């Protein structure tokens, strides 16, 4: 089966696309004919022409019906051309967003969204109170308010961005509401890592994994990430060796941490007994069922917290291992907790878990592989890979979480963003 060769004609430099280039042309036809917004030349076939107001999905599907059947089938034509068209259009978004009739399905193989209003009440993965709130509050009004904040943030309004981040947690949007929000947000910012990931997750949690996986696969084709399962939501650095799980034997400092396990555990137990209030609820709304709390010792970008005074032995072992940790915190989950699929902010870091309390029943998936925790031992993984946690045991699981820079990241780039 011959593959289509796509050659985009040159009209000025376009280094972002490498060997793929673009051209804009103006229509020489009559005044009543819509202007050409984008032309893509396909070797051995006719041009793909997108005019003002065109829906790219319809244009591409119609084009593939005209392709020489002896060279390639309509299905193969679409499968080969769609990722390249998406890459071109999203790369030229500032010029094309007002010209083409693009909808969210364009970014996932032109598959349409099919959700009913009743899906709000069918979102069984959120609490009853959240579902009840979603059915009584003005969801469409909330979505529009959030979109306006995003538009202001696009104009470098820092306050609007901060407000958006606060509201998205406080409002406890249901998965159906998130689909509604992010399928419109992606039309504002199609290359934003967070928005693309969040739309996919909302689809995933509403049992539309097919659409979610297509969205992420196309994002990889567009160069946003290197792998559909590795989706850092803030910053992706190409070229760093990437794998979900790392061998702790490659990181000697972990042996020193494990040697201090009993001291750290005893100090934790003392504080759980006398200062339980120091542990606060996780704020990202990532879990369902059970309970997930944390106590921060060091926050990325903010330094050590005042809580270090209650953990002198922990701090002594942390200092003695000679490792620069960008973030340190205790993380506790109760039985019945499910931390849903998510990814970390950047592939610049690796995450270490030193297991302090675990009698069994809890497990973690990173990438496609499930591991568990063993009390007194550590695990290390790349949390920019898709991961989730399920606890079906009978006792609380507590780990000390420590983040380190990826060992291949140059010193000059080790900057908290």
Short description:
By secondary structure, the chain is an alpha+beta fold.
Helix-strand layout with pairing:
Layout: E1 36-40, E2 48-51, H1 56-65, H2 74-91, H3 93-96, H4 128-136, H5 139-154, H6 158-170, H7 175-185, H8 193-205, H9 209-221, E3 245-246, H10 253-259, H11 261-274, E4 280-281, E5 287-288, E6 292-299, E7 303-304, H12 312-320, E8 327-333, E9 338-342, E10 349-357, E11 362-366, E12 369-372, E13 378-381, E14 387-391, E15 397-405
Antiparallel strand pairs: 1-2, 3-13, 4-6, 5-9, 6-7, 6-8, 8-15, 9-14, 10-13, 10-15, 11-12, 11-14
Organism: Geodia barretti
GO molecular function, one term: peptidyl-aspartic acid 3-dioxygenase activity
Domain Aspartyl/asparaginy/proline hydroxylase: 260-407
So, CATH architecture of the largest domain?
Answer: Sandwich
Total individual domains = 3
The backbone outline, from C-alpha atoms, is: elongated
Poorly predicted regions are: 1-31, 120-128
How many individual β-strands? 15
Work out the helix count: 12
Helical fraction equals 25-40%
CATH fold node name of the largest domain: Jelly Rolls
What distance separates the N and C termini? 47 Å
Average pLDDT score: 88
The Cα radius of gyration reads: 25 Å
Instruction: Give me the strand/helix succession.
Output: EEHHHHHHHHHEHHEEEEHEEEEEEEE
Main pleated sheet: 8 strands, antiparallel
Structural class: alpha+beta
Question: Strand portion, in percent?
Answer: 15-25%
CATH homologous superfamily caption of the largest domain: B-lactam Antibiotic, Isopenicillin N Synthase, Chain
- CATH class membership of the largest domain: Mainly Beta
Family: Belongs to the aspartyl/asparaginyl beta-hydroxylase family.
InterPro entries: Asp/Arg/Pro-Hydrxlase (IPR007803), ASPH (IPR039038), IPNS-like_sf (IPR027443)
GO cellular component, one term: endoplasmic reticulum
Signal peptide: 1-18
């Amino acid at each position: 089966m011959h593959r289509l060769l796509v050659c985009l004609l040159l009209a000025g430099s376009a280094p972002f696309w490498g060997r793929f280039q673009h051209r804009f042309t103006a229509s020489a036809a009559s005044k009543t004919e819509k202007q050409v917004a984008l032309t893509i030349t396909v070797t051995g076939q006719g041009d793909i022409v997108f005019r003002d107001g065109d829906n790219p999905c319809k244009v591409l599907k119609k084009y593939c019906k005209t392709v020489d059947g002896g060279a390639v089938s309509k299905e193969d034509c679409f499968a080969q051309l769609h990722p390249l068209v998406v890459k071109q259009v999203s790369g030229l978004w500032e010029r094309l967003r007002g010209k083409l009739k693009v909808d969210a399905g364009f970014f996932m193989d032109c598959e349409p969204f099919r959700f009913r209003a009743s899906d709000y009440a069918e979102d069984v993965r959120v609490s009853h109170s959240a579902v009840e709130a979603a059915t009584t509050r003005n969801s469409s009004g909330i979505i529009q308010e959030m979109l306006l904040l995003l538009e202001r943030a696009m104009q470098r309004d820092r306050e609007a961005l901060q407000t958006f981040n606060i509201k998205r947690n406080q409002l406890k949007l249901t998965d159906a509401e998130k689909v509604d929000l992010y399928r419109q947000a992606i039309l504002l910012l199609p290359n934003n890592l967070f928005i693309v990931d969040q739309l996919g997750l909302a689809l995933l949690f509403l049992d539309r994994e097919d659409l979610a996986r297509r969205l992420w696969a196309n994002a990889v084709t567009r160069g946003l990430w290197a792998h559909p399962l590795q989706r850092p939501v803030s910053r992706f650095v190409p070229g760093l060796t990437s794998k979900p799980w790392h061998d702790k034997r490659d990181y000697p400092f972990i042996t020193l941490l494990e040697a201090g396990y009993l001291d750290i555990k005893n100090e934790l137990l003392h504080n759980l007994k006398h200062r339980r209030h120091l542990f606060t609820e996780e704020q990202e709304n990532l879990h369902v069922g059970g309970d997930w709390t944390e106590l921060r010792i060091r926050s990325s970008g903010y330094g050590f917290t005042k809580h270090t005074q209650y953990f002198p032995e922990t701090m002594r072992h942390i200092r003695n291992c000679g490792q620069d940790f960008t973030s340190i915190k205790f993380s506790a989950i109760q039985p019945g907790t499910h931390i849903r699929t998510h990814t970390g902010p950047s592939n610049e870091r690796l995450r270490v878990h030193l297991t302090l309390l675990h009698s069994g029943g809890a497990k973690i998936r990173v990438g496609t592989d499930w591991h568990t925790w063993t009390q007194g031992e550590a695990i290390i993984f790349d949390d920019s890979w898709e991961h989730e946690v399920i606890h079906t045991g009978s006792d609380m699981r507590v780990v000390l979480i420590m983040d380190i820079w990826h060992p291949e990241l140059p010193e000059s780039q080790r900057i908290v963003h």
